[in-house]
Protein: Glutaminase
Organism: Paenibacillus rigui
Amino acid sequence: MNGEWKELEGRLPAWLEESRKRTASGKVASYIPELANAPGEALGITLCDGHNGVLTVGDCGLHFTLQSISKVFTLLLALMDHGEEGVFAKVGMEPTGDNFNSMLKLELVEPGIPFNPLINAGAIAVSSLIKGATPAEKTERIAAFFRELAGDSSLQVNEAVYQSETKTAHRNRSLAYFLKANGVLEHDDIEEVLEVYFKHCSIEVSCMHLARMALVLAYDGKDPQSGRQLVPRRYVQIAKTFMITCGMYNESGAFAIRVGLPAKSGVSGGILALVPGKYGIGVVGPALNPKGNSTAGVHLLETISTAFDWSMF
Ligand code: GLN
């Protein structure tokens, strides 16, 4: 066991309780009604290293849905299905500085493709690229890929969250129709694309799953436990770059300055982060700040990254 890991083990419990105080200023997401049931005061973190080391502190028994965190991994699968050229014909590479569900920039860019794959519009375009004959087959391919990365063959869609989102997703529906008008989803059935998108957002995980998925990214696409290359290194490089520039929505700049690690958040309060070459990290804290990121989760990651000088910059 290295010194850093030992120190982490000793200090994490106090850091977590300090960060937990921040949950009081956050709000659990409620625009997807089912998400409003999450415990606002919860905070948990799991770290995995590449030698079977696991550190888990706080409310790590909590299960939650991936939401926007899934977008990183559907991007990887779409890249594996179509290569860079195929994917970047449908989605751009630039941060927006706007909310994750914004429509503002959809009309402004030539040729009308979404700015990046981590905003909703971009992720919906990416969902349309996943290979499969039916929405069920596409969803199953996505779930199988996530199971492999997370090292758990039991990952499933949380049906209640999926139903709750599909019934209330007026904004995402309008984004998808906008994309169809722009030719990005020209040949697609909107409801079928949205079914795939809502279902991958509704896959249920724990902090341990996030940490395992992040660890594969930290090791450039290789599962350090099995030694298998699960994702080509180049695609992981692309995903990590998007995580830095757009992973924390329109708070990505501040997060890069304060934490300095590739990360992706979701409105369920999850954050997946990684220390390149070293650790995969999963955090959950359902109380969100106004940008839609876990308020206590961001604070905890900032505390740890600062203490160990983990910033990549
Ligand atoms: N499923 C959610 C949505 O489309 C994901 C958004 C998020 O986590 N920011 O609104």
